[in-house]
Amino acid sequence: MNVVQSTFAKPLPCSDLSAEESEVLYPQPFCPEAIAPHRRTPFDWVVNLMAIALVAAVFLSALLQFVFLALGVVLLTVAFYALCRLIWRLYVWQSRKFHADS
């Protein structure tokens, strides 16, 4: 097993290679620092801000959905309560009218 391992050359670190060498020896995902620049460009900041805005929009949408759902439940409860009170008042009025007539 040592004989097989010794026949292979040790890989060079990415920092010792030029961009062309690293692209041949190590494809893009394995050695990104030799190909991509180390400093951020304005385009990187724009992409980051757009990603943050997208995440914020998703969270805001979920929050608004929850608020409108809660508001809908409250309004339905109020409407149901008002309908029950109306039915009760009509029942009391009808029963008083019936007892007054008899």
Explain how this protein is built:
With 102 residues, this protein is mostly helical. The protein has a domain at 1-38. Helix content is 75%, strand content 0%. The chain has 4 helices and no strands. It has helices at residues 2-6, 19-25, 32-35, 42-101. It is rod-shaped, with a radius of gyration of 37 Å. 3% of the residues are buried. The chain crosses the membrane at residues 45-63, 69-88. Keywords: Membrane, Transmembrane, Transmembrane helix.
SSE order and pairing:
Blueprint: H1 2-6, H2 19-25, H3 32-35, H4 42-101
In short:
The protein is mostly helical. 75% of the residues lie in helices and 0% in strands. The radius of gyration is 37 Å and the shape is rod-shaped.
Largest sheet: none
- Secondary-structure element sequence? HHHH
Helix % is: over 70%
Report mean pLDDT, rounded to a whole number: 79
How many angstroms does the end-to-end distance come to?
111 Å
Helical segment count: 4
- Categorize the overall geometry: rod-shaped
List low-confidence stretches: none
User: What would you call the structural class?
Assistant: mainly alpha
Q: Over all CA atoms, what is the radius of gyration?
A: 37 Å
In oligomeric terms, what are we looking at? single chain
Strand content: under 5%
Number of strands: 0
Keywords: Membrane, Transmembrane, Transmembrane helix
Highlighted features:
rod-shaped; membrane; transmembrane helix; transmembrane
